[in-house]
Design a protein that fits this description.
The chain is an alpha/beta fold. The protein has a domain at 5-198: 3-Layer(aba) Sandwich (Rossmann fold). The protein has helices at 13-24, 36-43, 54-63, 73-77, 105-114, 134-142, 161-166, 178-187, 200-231, 235-243, 264-277, 283-306, 334-344, 373-377, 397-403, 418-423, and strands at residues 5-9, 28-33, 67-71, 87-90, 123-126, 148-151, 171-174, 195-198, 315-319, 348-352, 367-369, 382-385, 408-411, 427-429. It binds uridine-5'-diphosphate-xylopyranose.
């Protein structure tokens, strides 16, 4: 494998993981960001995000002289006294913009800033989730015949991003310039992963296709949980039976309070928008989004019923605020969406999350966040498990029951052992369980 000189623009989840992991594969990587404080922290080896293995890789990369952090895209590209950069990864945010479409302003800004600085023959790689056609649009924005554009979507899950990067199910590289695609694919050759070389539009589509399929799978399971409950079936048994079919698989079949996070909501809305612009009504994806709304409302129904029919003035404890376990990310968290609905009906909320010791202004407003699980139960009329943190299983449930006004747990993740809860004096209400 050739060690390449790489610039990574943007040091968020995707950019920082990409930069640190590429450095660990032997490449020389310069990571650039517009946030001076963040760059200073990264230079000191401080990683802001909760991502197992990432701080270690950042330290190792810097110690080996293969990973650098610089302020601004320009400094990522122009590296004095160094050979020219060969590959530039764009890892800037593409948030949900007007009407659900991906907002490409950050990509545009970076391209405008660096287009005249890129050395001839270098490859620009888009790693952000972007609408189909962005590689082509980027090529036009660059206006340089001597630069190729490649789409190389990431499939990293938060909380296991380093593991996912180093053990990928597949690597997808799309470009209308075959040699550029091969050069990017070669960056990963050490990983020995199945690699698909394809055209740019197909590569861009793979990311939406995969994420929306997964979101659809979860909406299906959440709807199934509802039906199981109505019919006296048990969703855990049903999904196990389904999952033995190799075409379905056992993973990604756990019901919950709805799906969220930084990708699924954004990508489902974007795909709908893309389809609509192409004159197509992609009702399967629209239906998955509708089911996600219904799922959250169903959590609220259960809590309302558990507290006697009205949430007004009732104290409710929330176990989990992050969008899933293993992360401190609160973006588009189903837990917070449920909290908002509960609050709208007048519930008084207290919340606890192992990765979120105190409230975040503007995000957890209206929830009294505590780092003590006992406090989350104190005087509550119901506790709601919203994030599947394994440590919730081993809480001192007898102690929690001792301080609760009414010991009831609504376990939206089917995380807890109902027998343990019952022995501790709690009424346990699961999701889709008979
Ligand atoms: C996702 C994709 O998995 C990843 O490939 C992509 O690149 C980015 O988006 P992430 O957002 O980190 O990753 O989370 P993921 O682990 O996929 O979970 C998404 C949501 O689905 C969470 O809210 C999670 O709690 C929920 N979920 C997941 C379930 O409710 N049940 C499951 O069985 C799995």
């Amino acid at each position: 494998m050739f060690a390449r000189r790489i610039a990574v623009i943007g040091t968020g989840y995707v950019g920082l993981t990409t930069g640190a992991c590429l450095a660990s594969l032997g490449h020389h990587v310069v990571c650039a960001d517009i946030d001076p404080a963040k760059i200073d922290r990264l230079k000191r080896g401080e990683v802001d995000i909760l991502e197992p293995g990432l701080p270690e890789l950042v330290m190792e990369g810097q110690a080996a002289g293969r990973l650098e952090f610089v302020l601004g895209a320009r400094n990522g590209i122009v590296q004095p006294d160094a050979p020219p950069v060969e590959v530039v990864f764009l890892c800037v945010p593409t948030p949900m913009g007007e009407g659900g479409a991906a907002d490409l302003a950050a990509v545009q800004t970076v391209v405008n800033e660096v287009r005249h600085l890129l050395p001839s023959g270098c490859v620009v790689v888009n790693k952000s989730t972007v609408p189909v056609g962005t590689a082509e649009a980027t090529r036009k924005m660059l206006g340089r015949r001597d630069i190729s554009v490649v789409s190389n979507p990431e499939f990293l899950r938060e909380g296991s991003a380093v593991h996912d990067f180093l053990n990928p199910d597949r690597i997808v590289v799309g470009s209308d310039a075959q040699d550029a695609a091969e050069r990017v694919a070669a960056l990963y050759s050490k990983l020995g992963a199945p690699t698909q070389l394809t055209d740019a539009a197909s590569a861009e589509m793979v990311k939406y296709a995969a994420n929306c399929f997964l979101a659809m799978k979860l909406s299906y399971v959440n709807a199934l949980a509802d039906l199981c409950e109505r019919l006296g079936a048990d969703v855990i048994e049903v999904t196990e039976g389904m999952g033995y079919d190799r075409r379905i698989g056992q993973t990604f079949l756990s019901p919950g309070p709805g799906w969220g996070g930084s990708c699924f909501p954004k990508d489902t809305h974007a795909l709908l928008q893309i389809a609509e612009a192409a004159g197509m009504d992609f009702d399967l994806v629209a239906g998955s989004l509708r089911t996600n709304v219904t799922t959250r409302a169903r959590v609220v129904d259960k809590v309302r019923t558990a507290v006697g029919g009205s949430l007004a003035g009732k104290r409710v404890g929330l176990l989990g605020l992050a969008f899933k376990a293993g992360t401190d990310d609160l973006r588009d968290s189903p837990a917070l969406a449920v909290a908002e609905l509960l609050r709208a009906e007048g519930a008084e909320l207290v919340g606890h999350d192992p990765a979120c010791a105190k409230g975040v202004p503007g995000v957890t407003d209206g929830i009294a966040v505590t780092d003590d699980p006992i406090d989350v139960a104190k005087d509550t009329e119901a506790l709601v498990v919203l994030t599947e943190w394994p440590q919730f299983r081993s809480l001192d449930w007898a102690a929690l029951g001792g301080v609760a006004k009414s010991p009831v747990v609504i376990d939206t993740r089917n995380l807890l052992d109902p027998d343990v809860l019952r022995r501790a004096g709690f009424a346990w209400i699961g999701f889709g369980r008979s």
